[in-house]
Amino acid sequence: MSGGGRNLLWKVLVFAAAVEMGTGVALIVDPTIIVRLLLGAEAAGVGIPLGRCLGIALVALAMACWPSRDPATSRRPALRAMLVYNALIAAFLAWLGIAARMATLLLWPAVVLHAAVALVLVWAYRDATSTWRTRK
Is this prediction's pTM over 0.70? Predict the structure, then answer.
């Protein structure tokens, strides 16, 4: 991957990891606010501990996907994980908005953000894959 491509990939991974880290911490601290803003529903009963479990998982994903500054370190697993997560969460949130009619203040911006990150990661993955193949 060219220096510019590596730099873009690093920036996209940092951005995606930082967003998920912030969301995870917010879910751990108070899942009811995030659920209300994102889905327009109340988190009650088992929803509160499940929201906190999701927050812990997002913090772990963010930490696992935080890229190294060392260009020799492969970013492929982090790229793949963040791509799959962003594509699937964009699709799921869009489904919630359309089929389950749960659209609120943050739902559609979250769909757009995750879809955009997924598209940039697809582009970066294609660029990185062609570079990884030429190194072999």
Answer: yes
